[in-house]
Design brief:
Elements lengths: L2 H10 L10 E2 L3 H6 L1 H9 L11 H21 L4 E2 L5 H14 L3 E9 L4 E16 L2 E10 L7 H18 L5 E6 L2 E6 L4 H16 L18 H11 L10 H9 L5 H5 L3 H7 L4 H14 L3 E2 L12 E11 L7 E10 L4 E6 L6 H11 L6 E5 L3 H12 L4 H9 L1 E3 H8 E2 L7 H4 L14 H14 L2 H27 L8
Parallel strand pairs: 1-4, 2-3, 5-6, 9-12, 12-13
Antiparallel strand pairs: 3-4, 4-5, 6-7, 8-14, 9-10, 10-11
Organism: Elusimicrobium minutum (strain Pei191)
Pfam families: RNase_H_2
InterPro entries: RecB_nuclease_TM0106_put, RNaseH-like_sf, YprB_RNase_H-like_dom
């Protein structure tokens, strides 16, 4: 029996990887950021899953692979690329390439299924000298990431891959390299080993049902395919996650005191809650729970809402994209505006990054009487972006600063005026709390980037129409909330 056959038999445990029982190193991001989604993989009803395509991630993966292969070919011209599509053949081909002593091996696959772990590796590089099972050489890992800085899950992912490599070759490389945009980082796998074992123990606890992690707040309580299910679970439980601004520690304090649902909090004595939580969190939690119980906003501060009006009232929203290049340059490609007086949607679209300046100039020129106009937006992003672009585009700096000066942040205004029956003050949470729905289920902010990118390549107007409809709904969500909160009965707290 050859060396690679013996290694395959040892580390395959006579089977192929199965994500129902085995952990792939790439799932480290989900383990850290979406552990409830992993819990659902094992314990939620399979029929409750709803697949939601992530076009942005799919496009990014394709672009990343192209950029990665280009970097590998340029820096390691003698690289052997594993071409096998079948996961079993990929692992066998990796072992055979290591046994042959290839100088570098790209798209490698490594398993240790007796310990229920496996991984993919961008590049294995041969290091002569120290004796391994393959001979007087061993391999080290290089991973390529599109980010500018090392993320926690990168370090853990590469540390797990390094551990599997060590178990196979019999040599433990202390460091693994991660190539980021613009810099080369080293991960000390020895220092990461204890943390790695903790995270793998957490995964095993999730898998065997001894640990159920907390979901996130709706509307993204978990990732696809469990987002819809997780949102439903959190909502139906009347979970304390539905209360904005509370940390996990604060929620635990409430639970330990017997307040396990928003109904419990709504029926509590506010003075008692203030002995458990400091203000403003006690008061915020109490009145938000009242809002949930009655499905109505509770007045927080009089005289704040409705917002001031002028002759022209415009609700606007930006869409920005990445260019999916090595430079990862971002630009605003769409300014959407709902004109309240004209009762219509206006859009300014840049066909490329060179037209970004033009659409802002056109936006300003659309405004007939700047001194009699208010620009309503949601969050500070739009104002910050226009202030920063004033430095980038000095020829229209005066227009950009004038636009920023017309702005009024509805999120700040509504948050100051009301406690809402909403898990956060994001537009995607606040507007649906009162019945607003986006018309497209398959087009969000990240999808819009992909549709726009493909429209630029193909000229297919159906793609840009989906982007425009999504942006229009963002604008309509703002005016919907604005008008709805003026007509709905408001609960006034008892003094």
């Amino acid at each position: 029996m050859s060396l690679e056959e013996n290694l395959y038999n040892t580390f395959s445990a006579g089977r192929a990887p199965d994500e129902k029982i085995d952990f792939h190193a790439s799932k480290m991001f989900s383990l850290l950021e979406d552990p409830f989604g992993i819990w659902c993989d094992f314990h939620a009803p399979r029929e409750a899953s709803v697949f939601e395509s992530n076009r942005y991630e799919n496009l990014k993966v394709r672009t990343d692979k192209s950029n990665r292969d280009s970097w590998i070919t340029q820096n390691f011209p003698n690289t052997f690329f594993i071409k096998a599509d079948n996961i079993t053949e990929r692992f066998k081909a990796t072992l055979a390439a290591m046994a042959r002593g290839e100088e570098a091996i790209a798209s490698a696959s490594l398993w240790n299924l007796p310990e229920n772990v496996f991984c993919g590796v961008n590049l294995l590089v041969k290091i002569p000298g120290e004796e391994s099972v393959f001979g007087p050489y061993h391999y080290k890992i290089i991973q390529l990431k599109r980010a500018h800085d090392i993320k926690d899950h990168y370090s853990l992912q590469v540390s797990l891959s390094n551990k599997i490599l060590w178990q196979i070759q019999g040599v433990f490389p202390t460091y693994a390299r991660v190539i980021l945009n613009g810099k080369d980082a080293k991960i000390n796998c020895v220092l990461m080993s204890e943390r790695l074992e903790q995270e793998l123990a957490k995964w095993r606890g999730i898998k065997d049902g001894t640990f159920e992690p907390e979901p996130h707040k709706p509307p993204k309580a978990a990732s696809s395919p469990w987002r819809v299910y997780a949102n439903k679970v959190v909502t139906e439980r009347k979970d304390l996650l539905m209360l904005p601004h509370l940390s996990a520690a604060m929620r635990n304090l409430l639970k330990e005191a017997g307040y396990k649902t928003t109904d419990d909090v709504a029926n509590a004595d506010l003075n008692v809650l203030k002995t458990i939580l400091e203000d403003p969190w006690a008061t915020e939690s109490y009145y938000t729970s009242i809002a949930y119980m009655h499905n109505k906003p509770v007045l927080k501060e009089e005289g704040v809402f409705p917002p001031p009006r002028k002759k022209h009232n415009l609700y606007f929203d930006f869409e920005a994209t990445e260019t999916f290049t090595k430079d990862n340059e971002s630009f605003v490609y769409l300014i959407g505006v709902w004109d309240a007086e004209e009762n219509k949607f206006i859009s300014f679209v840049a066909k490329n990054k060179e037209e970004e300046e033009k659409i802002f100039s056109d936006f300003f020129d659309y405004i007939k009487e700047p001194q009699d106009t208010i620009l309503y937006h949601w969050t500070e992003y739009e104002v910050k972006k226009m202030r920063s672009l004033a430095s980038k585009y000095p020829d229209i700096a005066q227009k950009l600063n004038a636009l920023a000066n017309m702005c009024l942040d509805l999120k700040i205004l509504i948050g100051k005026a009301f406690y809402l029956p909403s898990p956060s003050l994001s537009l995607k949470a606040a507007a649906p709390a009162f019945g607003f729905n986006w018309r497209q289920g398959d087009c969000g902010a990240m999808d819009s980037m992909v549709f726009y990118t493909n429209w630029c390549k193909t000229g297919d107007n159906n793609l840009i129409e989906k982007v425009l409809m999504y942006n229009e709904d963002d604008c309509k969500a703002m005016i919907y909330l604005d008008e709805y909160l003026q007509k709905i009965e408001i609960i006034k707290p008892v003094k």
